[in-house]
Specification:
305 residues, TIM Barrel, disordered N terminus, 12% strand, globular, alpha/beta, eight-stranded parallel β-sheet
Length: 305
């Protein structure tokens, strides 16, 4: 038997054994799990910096240092998305601790949403005032540095009060950030979020084209659209620009565990049709236990990916 024929026969035999033992489907499940993350925003009410006053469900408060092991143990996932208010410090010693906890849990940070005052002050990255805009760029650069240090592939920096009729200030900000991100190996991504892209996703496409380059792109969020019609159109527009991660939003579920607020399977289908190869980050925002909500989103992703 020739070497090539021998290898082919061994491969076929191995596949048959795996199929007969049920391991093949398990490997497929593991492969799907490698494409899924949990966002710390799903558990934001258990972080002191983002806890809502009216939240009253039981559960211990968290620190970021606990999250990698928690997600790995509870959900068998090894990707997390970390909102920057959940970093307790940016000191070198603290970031070293974060990296140690990630390594211990065999986990990586896939994205960091940069929710900072500078981005949401007045017009943020889109402000016509160069000083205001400069502060937003400077604040964002700081978190690009942190992302590079902890190994995150991207940061989400939203444009603030973007005026698509006067795009020049916004384009200037993102050209600066994308070039800086490129120098650090970090993508700068923008979510349909905060009033931008929710009704007119074509505004974000216009922005991506104007900025150009491979280090700026979309963070498509399944939920953040003003209607189901805009959602379907918007995701088809945004996923071709999705570089690293998308948000698989969890809102409310029926008795069978299916998402009730929007067509979750269709959103996954659109992402796959667009050739998206990145991470689906679970972002639960519904009522009830956030830990259970994350599990239901995970179950849906494992079903439809």
């Amino acid at each position: 038997m020739r070497r090539r024929e021998f290898i082919a026969s061994v491969g076929a035999g191995t596949a048959a054994v795996l199929a007969g033992s049920g391991l093949q489907s398990g490997l497929a499940q593991a492969d799907k799990s490698s494409r899924i993350a949990v966002s710390t925003w799903s558990l934001h009410n258990y972080f002191k910096s983002t806890r809502e006053k009216e939240f009253n469900l039981p559960g211990k408060m968290l620190s970021l240092l606990e999250v990698p092991e928690l997600v790995a143990d509870r959900y068998k996932l090894h990707n997390i998305e970390v909102c920057v208010p959940h970093f307790e410090s940016t000191d070198a010693a603290y970031l070293k601790e974060v990296k140690a906890k990630l390594a211990k849990a065999k986990t990586r940070i896939v994205n960091m949403p940069v929710d900072i005052d500078e981005i949401w002050t007045r017009g943020g990255l889109s402000d016509p005032d160069e000083k205001v805009r400069g502060n937003a760029v400077k604040g964002s650069r700081k978190w690009i540095d942190v992302a590079a240090e902890v190994g995150s592939k991207s940061v989400r920096c939203d444009p603030g009060k973007f005026d698509p009729k006067k795009p020049a200030p916004t384009v200037d900000s993102y050209r600066q950030l994308s070039e800086y991100g490129r120098s650090k190996g970090v993508h700068v991504i923008i979510e349909n979020h905060g009033g931008v892209g929710s009704e007119h996703p074509e505004d974000l496409v216009q922005l991506f084209k104007a900025v150009g380059g491979e280090h700026v792109g979309a963070l498509p969020d399944f939920m953040n659209f003003n209607s189901e019609e805009i959602r379907m159109k918007g995701l088809e527009m945004l996923f071709p620009y999705a570089r690293v991660v998308c948000h698989a939003k969890g809102m409310e579920f029926d008795a069978s565990g299916a998402e009730k607020e929007y067509n979750f399977p269709k959103c996954v289908e659109i992402s796959k049709k667009a050739g998206f190869k990145g991470i689906y980050s679970i972002e639960f925002e519904g009522p009830g236990d956030p830990y259970e909500g994350c599990q239901k989103v995970l179950d849906n992703l494992l079903k439809y990916l």
